[in-house]
Amino acid sequence: MTPTLVRQHHLHPASPPDPARSSRARDWAEIQERMLVPLYEAVYERLEVGPATRVLGLGCGSGLALLMAAARGAHVTGTEADAERLALARERLLPGDGARERTARTRLLGSVPGEVAKPGGPGFNLVTAFDPQPFAEGDLVSALSEAAAGAERGTPVVLAGWGPAERCATSSVLGVASRLADPLRTPGVWRPRGRDDLEELAHRAGLRPDGSGRVACPFGYADMDSAVRGLLSTGLFDAAVAATDRSQVDKELTEALHPHTRPDGTVWMPNVFRYLIARV
What is the 3-state secondary structure (H, E, C) of 71-121? Predict the structure, then answer.
């Protein structure tokens, strides 16, 4: 996702779990992460992910995208700097019930990409960054470059981000985060940084763009409380909370969500996400 809509932290080894953050990580895993399932499925279908695929997922979150790849038979490796999300990914992908086959095909690490390749083993033949900026942009370029160095020549590297603001109902809600975090900014809806931002990122990492696509990823919630918790779990409102307070953010986020609330109390926001396939 583009820098204005993502958490800004560096990709270093995961810090020790923080109990205060655990509930938010679980909200991400149980409420928000599933909103991107259509994106994951479209990419895997297009690239024919299967038993011969060796996936490296950068910023793998709580592991849903990797779980879907593993269900197709792929060997999966994931890196995630957030310790709480990484712990949830391990719960999903490395069960303690003796599922030896899945465990043998799965590696989850908080380390940087340069440390994930197995010495003497085959390289990755698919790299994904579905949430391509959960860390500072310069670090992402380095992470992509290091991942490419451990991949086979011609390996696809998938980057993803928001589609046009006019096709993303959530853009007006995310505008709340920008306005509260920076009160001097002119009020208005969030807009993407640029139409070709994914291509620019790929070029900076030494990758060759080779196709793209758009996928409908509606955000749907059972009720207002779930919508607020899900959106807060992304970390996109952290700066707004720091600049004001949690109650103020909750209040204004709830108000921004009201136009998207249906008569039955559910919240529904159509969105379009875009993905880029680049090659090593």
Answer: HCCCEEEEECCCHHHHHHHHHHHCCCCCCHHHHHCEEEECCCHHHCCCCCC
* Spatial CB neighbours of 104, under 8 Å, sequence gap ≥ 6: none
Amino acid of residue 95: P
In angstroms, rounded to a whole number, what is the distance separating the alpha carbons of residues 144 and 140? 6
**Dmax over Cα atoms in the chain, in whole Å?**
58
Question: Is this structure's pTM higher than 0.90?
Answer: no
Q: How far apart are the C-alpha atoms of 211 and 260, rounded to whole Å? A: 33
CA distance 275 to 150: 22
Q: What are the structure tokens assigned to 249, written together?
A: 């953010």
E strands present in the chain: 54-58, 75-79, 106-109, 126-129, 156-162, 208-216, 219-221, 267-269, 272-279
- Dump pLDDT digits (tens) for 183-226: 655 444 334 455 678 999 899 999 999 999 999 999 999 999 99
Q: Which amino acid is at 267?
A: V
pLDDT by residue (tens digit) across 41-66?
999 999 999 999 999 999 999 999 99
